[in-house]
Automatic annotation (TrEMBL):
Name this protein carries in UniProt: Thiamine kinase
Gene Ontology terms: biological process: phosphatidylethanolamine biosynthetic process
One Pfam family recorded for the sequence: Choline_kinase
Presence of keyword Transmembrane: no
Cellular compartments per GO CC: cytoplasm
Organism: Limimonas halophila
Keyword Kinase appears in the UniProt entry: yes
Any GO MF annotation of the entry: ethanolamine kinase activity
Entry keywords, A to Z: Kinase, Transferase
Length: 295
C-alpha cells in the first residue's frame, strides 16, 4: 500500500461514525480519489477519499452537495457523512456497467430516464452555490496548465485549441440543465431493479448535449444507437442540425478527456496508465472528428 493510500485508509478508520472498529477494504476504479468499502455493525458503506483538485476544477463541497441532491432525486445512494475530503454513502449492491452494457438497447432504455432525472430533478434539491461546467472553459484551462508545465503535448495545443473553437461555434446557443458531466459507463450501477448514477466530481449546469455526447463517446456507440439515444431523450427523431451539434459535443467531450489525461500524466500520484488513456482518447477523438466533419 502506498503512503497516500495508507493515510487515506487511516482517515477512514478514524471517522467517528462507525459502530466499533472497522477495516476499510480498498476498491478499484477511482482516478481522482481513493475508494473503500466499510462494514460495521450497522451495515455496509462506500467511502470516497479525495481532496480538492483545482487543476481539474474539482471542489469536493460541490460534489457532496450534488450527491445529496442526486439522492433526493432518486439517483444516488444516501449520503451518510461528509467531511474534509470524505464522502460516505450507503453501499449499493449491484453491477457496474461497462461499454457493452451501455451499447445494449435494452440498457439504454433504462439509462435515458435516469439522465433526464439528473438534468431536471437534481436542481430542485440542490442547495448552496452551484457551478457551471462548460467544456470549452475546461479545455482552455487545461491548455494553459499544459503550456505552463512544459507538457510533452505542448506542440499539439494550437491544433487542439483550433478544434475547440470550431466546435464551440458549431454548438452555438444551449439549453441549460444540471449535468453529471462524467458519464463513463462505470458511473452507472445496475442493482437489478434500478439504475444508480454515482460520482458527481464534475457535476454542474451545462448543456444536455454534453452528457449525451459523453455517454455515446465513452461507450463508442454505433451511429444508429446514437440516433436512438437522441430520439429517446428528445422524444422525436433528431434533425440534421441536432446531429451536427451532438457530434460536435462528442468531439468536445473526447477533447476534454484527452487534455484531462494529459494533465493527469503530469500531476497524478495514482497507479494508473494515464499515457495510454490519453492516446486512447486522442484516437477516439480522431474518429469522432471524421464523423463530425461529414455532418
Amino acid at each position: 500500500m502506498s503512503e497516500g493510500a495508507h493515510a487515506a485508509a487511516q482517515r477512514v478508520r478514524d471517522l467517528p461514525i462507525w459502530s466499533g472498529n472497522v477495516e476499510p477494504e480498498a476498491l478499484s476504479g477511482g482516478i481522482t480519489n481513493l475508494n473503500y468499502r466499510v462494514r460495521d455493525a450497522s451495515g455496509a458503506y462506500f467511502v470516497r477519499v479525495g481532496d480538492d483538485i483545482p487543476i481539474h476544477l474539482i471542489q469536493r463541497r460541490q460534489e457532496h452537495a450534488a450527491t445529496r441532491a442526486a439522492h433526493a432525486a432518486g439517483l444516488a445512494p444516501e449520503v451518510v457523512h461528509t467531511g474534509d475530503g470524505i464522502l460516505v454513502l450507503r453501499f449499493v449492491e449491484g453491477r457496474t456497467l461497462d461499454e457493452a452494457d451501455v451499447r445494449d438497447p435494452r440498457t439504454l432504455r433504462r439509462l435515458v430516464p435516469a439522465l433526464r432525472r439528473c438534468h431536471h430533478e437534481i436542481p430542485k434539491h440542490l442547495r448552496g452555490p452551484a457551478l457551471m461546467f462548460w467544456v470549452f472553459h475546461a479545455i482552455r484551462h487545461y491548455a494553459g496548465e499544459l503550456q505552463d508545465r512544459a507538457s510533452p503535448y505542448t506542440d499539439r495545443l494550437p491544433e487542439l485549441l483550433d478544434k475547440a473553437r470550431e466546435l464551440e461555434n458549431a454548438i452555438g446557443r444551449i439549453e441549460v440543465v444540471f449535468g453529471h458531466n462524467d458519464l463513463l459507463p462505470a458511473n452507472f450501477i445496475d442493482d437489478g431493479e434500478r439504475i444508480w448514477l454515482i460520482d458527481y466530481d464534475y457535476a454542474g449546469f451545462n448543456s444536455p448535449l454534453f452528457d449525451l455526447g459523453g455517454l455515446a463517446s465513452n461507450a463508442e456507440m454505433p451511429a444508429e444507437l446514437e440516433d436512438d439515444l437522441l430520439t429517446q431523450y428528445y422524444g422525436e427523431q433528431p434533425d440534421t442540425q441536432l446531429k451536427r451539434r451532438f457530434n460536435a459535443m462528442k468531439c468536445a467531450s473526447l477533447l476534454r478527456e484527452s487534455m484531462w489525461s494529459m494533465t493527469s500524466e503530469l500531476i497524478s500520484e495514482l497507479d494508473f496508465d494515464f499515457a495510454a488513456y490519453t492516446q486512447e482518447n486522442l484516437d477516439r477523438l480522431e474518429r469522432a472528428w471524421d464523423v463530425y466533419a461529414r455532418t
